[in-house]
Amino acid sequence: MLSHDTIWAAIDRLAERNQLTPSGLARRAGLDPTSFNKSKRTGPDGRMRWPSTESISKVLEATGTGIDQFMGFIQPESGGTVPNGAFPPQAGSIPLLGFAQAGAGGFFDDGGFPAGQGWDVVEFPASPARKSGVYALEVQGDSMKPLYRDGDVLIVEPGAQVRRGDRVVVKTRDGEVMAKVLARQSAKSIELMSLNPEHPNRTLEMTEVEWIARIIWASQ
């Protein structure tokens, strides 16, 4: 069940994911910069003020965020939900899947969040494990050397904003899953730099990309 606190917490997390303050998020969406200030969340009489559906719609559009992704920002322990059956984050444990299996269907929802059956679980430090929707991919083979080796585990955060120079996991609509460095991104295409110099760099049209997610941590 949604609550006043969890909705406002989701807005705060949306702002944080886009490296904005709540005021900056409101400004980007064309709203009054004070719309999301903590002082505006209760009235002078102490009654709770809720953000309007119009305000939420505008910030989602301004940040390119889907409603399912926004729902994923709501902390499950606070009574919220996670998108499309994605695994709720637990301190120290997150879903784990091998790279070889990641290209098969049924393991991710449309937003790149883990879903379905067949996932294992791995224990990890609390900091990455507490992020909403994070999961782990186990490196298989030598295609990512020298940066990542066979058996290394990569922590992936779907829905996080990606920038040039970030290490990312990309899944194509053909089912190929790869870990690369984001060299350039435009509205029409992305350029990916290979981690292994023996493998070619890649340029993909955005119509070929199912999702792209940022690597935030690696066990090495």
Walk me through the structure.
This protein is an alpha+beta fold and 220 residues long. The protein has 6 helices and 9 strands. The chain has a 9-stranded mixed β-sheet with strand order 2-1-3-4-9-5-6-7-8. Strand 6 and strand 7 form a beta hairpin. The chain is elongated and about 65 Å long.
Could you give the topology of this structure?
Layout: H1 4-17, H2 22-28, H3 53-63, H4 67-72, E1 93-98, H5 99-102, E2 120-123, H6 126-129, E3 135-138, E4 153-157, E5 167-172, E6 177-185, E7 189-194, E8 202-205, E9 209-219
Parallel strand pairs: 1-3
Antiparallel strand pairs: 1-2, 3-4, 4-9, 5-6, 5-9, 6-7, 7-8
Instruction: Tell the overall outline.
Output: elongated
Portion in strands: 25-35%
Unreliable residue runs: 76-91
Instruction: Kindly provide the radius of gyration, computed on alpha-carbon positions and rounded to a whole number of angstroms.
Output: 19 Å
Mean residue pLDDT: 80
The CATH class of the largest domain, by name, is Mainly Beta
Distance between the termini: 40 Å
Helix percent band: 10-25%
Strand order of the largest sheet: 2-1-3-4-9-5-6-7-8
Number of strands: 9
CATH architectural arrangement of the largest domain: Ribbon
Taken in chain order, the helices and strands follow as HHHHEHEHEEEEEEE
Q: Treating each run of at least 4 consecutive H or I residues as one helix, how many helices?
A: 6
State the CATH topology of the largest domain.
Answer: Umud Fragment, subunit A
Q: CATH homologous superfamily name of the largest domain?
A: Umud Fragment, subunit A
